[in-house]
Write a structure and sequence with these properties.
By secondary structure, this protein is mainly β. 0% of the residues lie in helices and 60% in strands.
Length: 120
């Protein structure tokens, strides 16, 4: 079964740091883009950062300069390093990836989410 599993969320004080990890498992030929999204209570899910298979990155304006996305293709993992965290970063963070699961066939997958809470 192909799946994405996140880890690394938790409670942190404002100004602190956290690292989120997401592991892809199952019968996967390769991984196209990977990314992180978040959803705060009462708000829509929003993009945080994405990274292509070649390493090109894209960030939401609200996290530029504070968050860094990276990936390890060999381990089929993507990471989100979060620094200078603010209370407004509090949300459930979701991993998203476009996975090649068969010849010329790719599908988008979501992880189950991990809670990040930043206290003021």
């Amino acid at each position: 079964q192909v799946q994405l599993v996140e880890s690394g969320g938790g409670l942190v004080q404002a100004g602190g740091s956290l690292r989120l990890s997401c592991a892809a498992s199952g019968r996967i030929f390769s991984i196209n883009f990977m990314g992180w999204y978040r959803q705060a209570p009462g708000k829509q899910r929003e993009l945080v950062a994405t990274i292509t298979s070649g390493g090109s990155t894209n960030y939401a304006d609200s996290v530029k300069g504070r968050f860094t996305i990276s990936r390890d293709n060999a381990k089929k993992m993507v990471y989100l390093h979060m620094n200078s965290l603010k209370p407004e970063d509090t949300a459930v963070y979701y991993c998203n990836a476009d996975l090649v699961i068969a010849m010329s066939t790719s599908r988008g997958y979501w992880g189950q989410g991990t809670q990040v809470t930043v206290s003021s």
